[in-house]
Design a protein that fits this description.
Elements: E1 2-4, H1 13-27, E2 33-37, H2 43-48, E3 72-73, E4 79-80, H3 96-104, E5 109-113, H4 120-128, E6 131-136, H5 139-154, E7 161-168, H6 180-190, E8 194-195, E9 200-201, H7 204-209, H8 220-223, H9 228-251, H10 258-262, H11 268-271, E10 274-275, E11 291-295, E12 301-304, H12 306-314, E13 325-331, E14 341-347, E15 353-359, H13 365-375, E16 385-390, H14 396-399, H15 402-421
Parallel strand pairs: 1-5, 1-6, 2-4, 2-5, 6-7, 7-8, 7-9, 10-12
Antiparallel strand pairs: 3-4, 11-12, 11-16, 13-14, 13-16, 14-15
The chain binds adenosine-5'-diphosphate and magnesium ion.
Magnesium ion binds next to helix 1.
């Protein structure tokens, strides 16, 4: 998932997002590529629409429209979701979008174009993305990138963000020696940003593709091949493909059937509840294992990387060297409401209760986000939740082997029983 984002308008987001889709498809014919925009300007439709207007639009992402009906095949072999004029943010936290997109199981690459403001949708796209491209054309855009980086920092994912110098007049000079885009790159790197070596030049020909009287927007690939932007977009697509190859190696287990065959200890009915990604960093966690967790209400289970768990858990300042089981319980009409409570209960490795503490959630966004990812819903809506985490980090093979898996289930029942008896849940 790729988000193209910037709080500034007119920096080339939509041009880059739409053309990137075309170039990816051109370089890699077999790779499914889908594009969608949270903006309401219909540029995506103007470039990709083919045939009658699809029944559903991107608004369907926020509803329960089945995945196969969301995206339709468009021009240049690219799938697209029709744009929508009125998108209303749902009540879930923006982090919910990543799960929704994963649940659609769209194959290949999804490109999300965003609005020039940092609203719910842009934040959702940032949190969903494996790669965030931020076009910057001047110093102001660079300063603006700070807000995007902050959102990614809150979930420890700043390494996904790449600045892309855009609409650059490669001849413009700051003074006799320094070109503007070189200065921009220098200033960005000094602020610790990753900057692509590629830049997208300003080209009147490219600009003309989206203006004029035609209701269609033409791609650079087909209508501006003799510009510098053509080879720049090709390089950008190659950069994306190299990242995609690396990521998909990790994700391959979903397609090669790793889950059904490799974990015989897990009853078949449980396998589809197995979440493949770490609920904290959203990267693959099944291959590395970590702390196994289980959410009672949704019956979701999976692994949180040991380091990711420590980041959140270590912050709570609990006196805990037990390395047994941790039960997280949520009580009350909704976590962020005035009367809800999160309690952390520590158990020894045999499921004996050691200690319980209530945790203040205000100002703990990473914890709140983690809990919503584990439970699969926004905490605003959660009423009663029970999540059990095995603090012994294990490989998936070990944790999901028959004996270990059964032991965890029996501990889970025992822990729930103890908490009930102690009046704690
Ligand atoms: N490389 C480019 N050279 C010249 N004009 C461009 C280039 N990329 C985009 N434009 C023009 O700049 C304007 C803003 O581009 P757009 O992609 O819509 O930006 P954003 O989505 O960030 O608002 C549009 O008129 C577009 O045609
Ligand atoms: Mg745009």
């Amino acid at each position: 998932m790729i988000a193209v984002a910037s709080e500034k308008g007119g920096v080339g987001k939509t041009t880059i997002a739409t053309n990137l889709a075309v170039y990816l498809k051109a370089l890699c014919e077999d790779l499914p590529v889908t594009i969608a925009s949270f903006d309401n300007h219909f540029s995506v439709d103007q470039m990709f629409a083919l045939g009658p207007r699809p029944e559903h639009s991107i608004a369907g992402l926020l509803e329960d429209v089945p995945p196969a009906e969301l995206a339709v095949l468009g021009q240049y072999g690219v799938q697209y979701m029709a744009s929508s004029r009125r998108l209303q943010p749902p009540s879930h936290a923006p982090g919910w979008m990543r799960q929704r997109l994963h649940s659609t199981e769209l194959p290949g690459i999804l490109i999300l174009d965003t609005r020039p403001i940092l609203d719910w949708f842009t934040e959702a796209a940032l949190l969903a993305a494996d790669l965030v491209l931020v076009p910057v054309k001047d110093r102001a855009a660079l300063v603006n990138a700070g807000a995007l980086r902050q959102i990614l920092a809150s979930v420890d994912r700043t390494t996904r963000l790449w600045l892309l110098p855009s609409l650059v007049d490669t001849r413009a000079k700051l003074n006799a020696e320094v070109r503007v885009h070189e200065f921009l790159t220098y200033a960005a790197r000094e602020r610790d940003y990753q900057v692509l070596d590629i830049c997208i030049s300003k080209s009147p020909k490219v600009e003309s593709l989206a203006s004029g009287f035609s209701s269609r927007i033409r791609p650079v690939l087909t209508h501006a091949r003799n510009t510098a932007v053509h080879s720049q977009l090709k390089q950008l697509a190659e950069f994306v493909l190299s990242r995609f190859d690396a990521e998909s190696k990790l994700l391959n287990c979903r397609h090669t059937g790793l889950i059904p065959d490799v974990f015989p200890g897990m009853p078949v009915g449980h396998r589809h509840r197995l979440i493949l990604e770490c609920p904290f960093c959203c990267r693959q966690s099944l291959s590395e294992g970590g702390h196994f967790y289980f959410d009672l209400r949704s019956r979701r289970r999976g692994f949180i990387h040991a380091a990711c768990f420590e980041k959140v858990y270590g912050d709570l300042g609990l006196d805990d060297d037990s390395h047994g089981l941790v039960a997280l319980t949520i009580d009350g009409p909704g976590l962020v409401g005035p009367e809800c409570r999160l309690a952390v209960h520590l158990f020894d490795t045999d499921g004996g209760l050691l200690n319980s503490e209530e945790i203040e959630l205000k100002g703990r966004k990473p914890l709140v986000d983690l809990l919503s990812m584990m439970t699969g819903q926004s905490l605003d809506e959660s009423y009663r939740e029970f999540i059990l985490v095995n603090r012994v980090a294990q490989s998936a093979d070990d944790q999901l082997a028959e004996g270990a898996y059964r032991r965890f289930s029996s501990h889970r029942r025992q822990v729930a029983r103890e908490l009930r008896q102690a009046g704690l849940f």
